[in-house]
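Ticket #4471: complex job returned nothing on first submit. Input attached below:
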Amino acid sequence: MSKELIRLQDLTMEFDGERILDSINLYINDHEFLTLLGPSGCGKTTTLRIIGGFLNPTSGTVTFDGETINDVPPYKRQINTVFQRYALFPHLNVFDNIAFGLRVAKLPREEVTERVNRMLEVVSLKGYGHRHINSLSGGQQQRVAIARALVNEPKVLLLDEPLGALDLRLRKDMQIELKRIQQAMGITFVYVTHDQEEALSMSDTVVVMDKGRIQQIGRPEDIYNEPKNAFVADFIGESNILDGVMLSDYKVRFFGRTFQCVDKGFAPNESVDVVIRPEDIDIVAPEEGHLVGVVTGVTFKGLNYDIIVEFKGFKWLIQTTDFHGEGSTIGIRLNPEDIHIMHKSEYSGMFGDYSSYSAEYDELTEDAEDEEE
Amino acid sequence: MKKANRILTVLMFIFLYIPMVVLIVASFNTSQDITKFEGFTLRQYAELFRDEDLLRLLGNSVLIALLSTAISVAFGTAAAVGIHRLKPKMRKVVMNLTNIPMTNPDIVTGVSLSLLFVFVGTRLLGQRESLTFWTLLIAHVTFGLPYVILNVMPKLQQMDGSLTDAAMDLGCTPVKAFFKVILHEILPGIVSGGIMTFTMSLDDFVISYFVTGSGFVTLPVEIYTYTKKPIQNKVYAMFTLLFLLIFVLMVAMNLLQLRANRKRETMRSVSKGGAIFRRCAAGFAAACVLAGCCFLAFGNKQDKIILNVKNWGMNMADGSDGTLDIVKAFEEKYPNIKVNMSYYESNETLYSQLKNGGISVDVIIPSDYMIDRMRQEGMLEKLNFDNIPNFQYVDEQFKNPDYDPNNEYSVPYTWGTVGILYNTKYVDPADVTGWELLWNEDYAGKILMIDNSRDAFGIAQYLLGYSVNTEDREELQACADKLAEQKPLVQQYVMDQIYSIMENEEAWIAPYYAGDCMLMMEENEDLAFFLPQEQGFNLFTDAMCIPTCCKEKDAAEKFINFLTDPEISGANMDYICYASPISAARDYMEDYLAESEIVYPSEEILANGTAYKYLTKETTRYVEGLYQSATKTADAEGPNWIPYAIGGAVLLGLAVTLPVIRRRKKTQ
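Support reply: We reran it on our side without changes. The output follows.
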């Protein structure tokens, strides 16, 4: 795409003997929209704070434009941040908040006014300059925070879960808005979120993190279609993950049957994880199916039904637009491109079984995650 | 229910504010008597603003309060920011440590600071006068700091922690971030902490009492010595003004806070209120600094000699009630000397203050036996009588006294007797025969006893026929028994509190110093004085001395000489109502005093009086022990258990309810 701007090399971070980051290696290109994605506690915010200069890594280097900036304090970096809860200054109005950085830099009065007004237009807040911060809605505050960072014309904008506090509808709007601003200003965005949908829809590059380690780096499509391990497969979208054996190139055996697949390069008879996305499964009459199972649960999702189907004691999630009642017997067909093979990892066996699946359960875990943030 | 609530609220406010109302009414009263309101006047306010001494004291208090507030706010805020950055565990420990001085009894803080200052100043720095304005300031900052920290910490904790990050992200250095962002967030905490510190400092007595030298006295410390005479009405005026000042300050602060809150709630755009508030705060801070600088500049420029005099309270004419203002007259005569008066309550207090060290005093006026003791312990300087020519006017009988045999250390100031003051309305003249009146059971509960061991033992010794200077243990024990026998009859053991009790007729009989008795008799004409001449009585002399901690000996001798001038001495006696050791002074006294039998008993009566001598250290200690056990042991049969019972019940209640409350909190 374009030249490399930031590089993190062997970044390690420890707090009180606890390892938060474990040898992070990452480069970020100019004009790129890069997202750090992972569950809470995975180290994504820590990584962002190291880039911003608010934390010093225990070991490893941060380079910016070819120079090591480990010891450069935040106020000397050409980087600005949009904080999780905005961190707007309550004693200043909208205009003064946005003008803060320019005034600290002692720019002439006219230039400050001009740039702030232009920025107010960019974030669609024209005429709000004299409003008090606390009189703004969440979305408006969000935009002030973005304007306050962008008005300084940084090379990189760091965004720490900037949409986390907004309701769903507003979040969708702001996602589009952010992408628009990023493209209009031509600035590198480093974006932190735990929302996979957000990550996939906005980013040029997604970095999936867990337990302080990078699990996978790639374009959104690659991350979704070619997850590297069970964690990524599960975290990005829904996945049925099964134990299988790679008999030879393009041949995998699971559930007592041998299937054609598109993967190769595994050792003969290597144990592998087999990923099958719920929306890739074709439902057919029982007699035509590769496998035959019984529907044990149905949830209406609007666009589709989530149905839970039991195959030989193992429950799968299947997404279908056709209704299949509980107790009905169905057959499924798996095309070679629907089957994705992964090497075994520490995450094997932890994800991909829908035996205990229920819609409520899903919501509960999501809430718990929000609270932790 | 609502009505009952309202009534209770009103009652509570009445309970809280009625004392203030009484004070304010009294400050406008034309009458001297606070129980009668005779008319409205502003005279007391006019008098207040003419009274340079009171204004100076008030100025001192305000100065200390402003400076200590400014320093506490600066350091306290910095400390709070530092503590806030600590790890939570450490933060808790540090917060507890900073809270302890606040919960510490003032008396403990005061005494320990005093010890520290004296030790550092005298021992390490070799200062003669280690208790000064600066120690007072340090002490006030010491107890002000925790209040600032305590008020600022919650604001820091409430504040979004990423505000600092945000400021630094936008180009601020950490210091700049503090001033541009953090300061605005924690300002309400700083202001309320500052106001608390200011008021605490303004009215602190206990700590100030121990750490200030004689050079710089604050209002509360001085007011404490006003117990001897009824408080002057202009003091009410000053208190009213002080109360109003604090009241306005608090109301203003609350209004500002309210406005700030309202602004945040409603969706109004930013008004200029915040800016005005900020400017006010900045102005206040600037005023503090300015006041401090002025003081320092003024203090340094002053090339006058400061003469520190320690005297009994109300023991020198001060210009009130048409008397001569002696200090003023002296300062007019010697314009380069400034007299600085401070006061003590008893000979023993004075002794311990000088013994503790750390202060510089130039002139003291103790009683005979104490002069004897100080002389023997080398606490007094020899006087240069070439500088005290007026000594020639002192009557021969007062020269070379027992307490200063070669008359090297002292010049007599006043003399007087100890007799019995009684109320003729209640006491049968037939009963007034001698010291035994104080043991008369018919007047049980209406008898006051003098509260110092020397005078109390003296009375018992006269009654029992022993020498007042006896060191015989058996005789002393007999005296102690006699005093213990008196105890059930005694309403209170008092010194200066005697004034109000006798004048208000709450007690009828009390032994006390003749001069003071004269003053009380002026206030209540039913009071009479009796001198038990057959049994004998104490004839005491107060004399002027220069202690070894003196810094301005020349000026001190000038002052002593001035007070020994017959005309000055006479004018002085008009105020204090004691007898002058200078016969010539009688010509300048008002006739009723000069001719009073009480002030100047006849020669033959005087022949029966005896003076106290200094007893050996062992005997003094022995007598003190006997006195304490004879008069101060707890009264087993009294209703003393009631407060203990209430206290116990409250503690028990707390012990029972606290765990319940805590448990409830946990389950929530």
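Confidence is low (pLDDT under 50) at residues 266-272 of chain B. Closing as resolved unless it happens again.
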